[in-house]
Specification:
The protein has 512 residues and is an all-alpha fold. The chain is built from 21 helices and 2 strands. It is 71% helix and 1% strand. The chain has a two-stranded antiparallel ribbon with strand order 1-2. α6 runs antiparallel to α17.
Length: 512
């Protein structure tokens, strides 16, 4: 009878016979950094962290960098001993047991399905914002998202190298451009008055060095707010582990994947530190607690003129498109791996006979994105959309709302998977007597748990006395619990009625 732990590997040829091993280090680095999408996250996702962390958002991102190094270290250790398109699903299954592995794979796939839809909508409203800035028009965001959907479908269906190498070029260009804007903002220093209302005096105008950005009380926020920001700071790194899904398509996965995971976290962390500090300075560190959450645009809002703001929006739009592509590549591989092992429908585990891509998983992912975005808008009142979008009421409202709402659901799901990965690392390290797994896995579990708490805190506690909790925010924990409960039910059904399939979970990978 099948047991629930220690699934044994099969031969390398079983795990890799379908994919073409064409990728090198630069390709897997491009995959990790594209899903991280530093330019998009630096331009906009920092806004979500700032809603509670305010001017101390740079501290939240610094802590997020250190936390993600623990998660990345755990991924790197697993990646050195096995390679699988299932990545987190395979690691948790192999490290802990089949039940936790299935739940981790289920939540990871669900999170990336949700976050991919969010980022695609991000591309829509960033591009629409750029058009509005340059022309004065009020375009609808969803037309741009539909164009992005077609581009992603075409780029993901064929040779994976075309996607990864285009991603790398866009990464370098967008990150370099935003760093230039950030340096200019820092050199100018804090404004004399609020950049939002144009009248509220800002403390220490013209100041370029303000260390209060790294201490909550000095920045006028709480440590709880910084912990909330930490969750979104870690979300901004989500995807560092995404290079692992290309393990079976990489020539030297045990060398390239660990370097890509840890290297991308360090590069992105340094980038975020500069961008968030520049944004805090651009608003004024103390004033940022009020103005940053109200701006939506982050760095673009503090840019010195329209030209610089246009650069920020253009970079954010490009980065969000290729982030969506990277997320799409990642989730399609996880779905493929679970379908290949028949814990999800077998059809998901098939590769296109000519292109060697998981075409059925690709099609499913794109269809889910459309349903998520359309359903989020159609079944939410305009008043709620405006409220969640920070009072914005124009052609961009729906895009901002969908991005914020779906990111709010995807964040705790990802943090829960990081927590499970840490547990798997501790269990695996104890089993094989490897202290590295125990220490790094333990840290990953702790930071994953803290970030999970932070991401859900304001679903239960008002952001300010009397402010109330919007229904869509209060519903987030229950939506996540429902996703997890369905995953556990499917796992229990599979274990009870499909014992051979259950016994084979986690068997398909290369192992040294």
């Amino acid at each position: 009878m099948a047991t629930d732990a220690n699934p044994a590997p099969v031969s390398a040829t079983t795990g890799t016979s379908g994919f073409h091993k064409t990728l090198g280090l630069r390709d897997v680095i491009a995959q990790s950094l594209s899903v991280i999408a530093p330019a998009m996250s630096g331009a906009f996702l920092t806004y979500l962290a700032s809603t509670k962390a305010g001017g101390a958002t740079p501290l939240a991102y610094l802590l997020g960098t250190l936390a993600m190094l623990a998660v990345g270290g755990t991924v790197a250790l697993f990646a050195r001993s096995l390679s699988s398109a299932g990545s987190m699903y395979s690691y948790i299954t192999r490290g802990a047991n089949r039940t936790l592995g299935f739940l981790g794979g289920w939540c990871y796939a669900a999170a990336f399905l949700v976050l991919g839809g969010a980022v695609l909508c991000g591309f829509g409203f960033f591009t629409a914002s750029l058009v509005a800035l340059l022309t004065g028009a009020d375009p609808s965001w969803y037309w741009f998202s539909l164009v992005g959907l077609v581009v992603i479908a075409l780029m993901s269906m064929f040779d994976i190298r075309a996607s990864t190498r285009t991603q790398l070029v866009i990464l370098v260009l967008t990150m370099a451009a935003l760093l230039v804007v950030a340096v200019v903002v820092i050199s100018i220093g804090s404004p004399a008055v609020s950049v939002i209302d144009g009248s509220t005096p800002v403390a220490s105008p013209g100041r370029s060095v303000d260390l209060s950005a790294f201490w909550p009380s000095a920045a006028g926020v709480t440590w709880t707010g910084v912990l909330f920001g930490l969750a979104f700071g870690m979300l901004s790194f989500t995807g560092a582990e995404a290079s692992a899904v290309l393990s079976e398509e990489t020539r030297d996965p045990r060398g390239a994947v660990p370097r890509a995971v840890l290297g991308s976290i360090v590069v992105a962390g340094l980038f975020y530190l500069v961008i968030t500090y520049a944004t805090a300075i651009g608003f004024g560190v103390q004033q940022a607690a009020v103005d940053w959450p109200a701006s939506l645009a982050g760095l673009a809002a503090v840019a010195p003129n329209t030209g610089f703001a246009a650069v920020v929006l253009a970079c954010a739009a490009l980065a969000s498109l290729f982030c969506a592509l990277g997320v799409h590549i990642a989730v399609s591989r996880v779905l493929f791996a679970m379908g290949r092992e028949r814990v999800l429908p077998r059809r998901l585990g098939t590769l296109h006979p000519r292109w060697g891509t998981p075409w059925t998983a690709i099609a499913l992912d794109l269809a889910v994105w459309v349903l998520l975005a359309g359903g989020s808008v159609l079944f939410t009142s305009r008043e709620t959309q405006v409220a969640i979008a920070g009072g914005l009421d124009d052609g961009l409202t729906g895009g901002v709302y969908v991005f914020t709402f779906l990111a709010g659901i995807g964040t705790p799901l990802v943090m829960a998977v990081y927590f499970m990965l840490g547990i798997a690392g501790v269990v695996h390290g104890t089993r094989i007597g490897d202290a590295r797994f125990r220490v790094v896995g333990g840290l990953a579990a702790v930071v994953g748990g803290l970030a999970l708490f932070g991401s859900l805190y304001y679903s239960f506690v008002e952001a300010a006395p009397g402010a109330g909790i919007p229904l869509v925010v209060a519903a987030v924990p229950w939506v996540c619990l429902a996703i997890g409960a369905v995953g556990l039910a499917v796992a229990a059904w599979t274990r009870r009625f499909r014992q051979p399939v259950w016994a084979d979970m986690g068997r398909i990978f290369d192992e040294v």
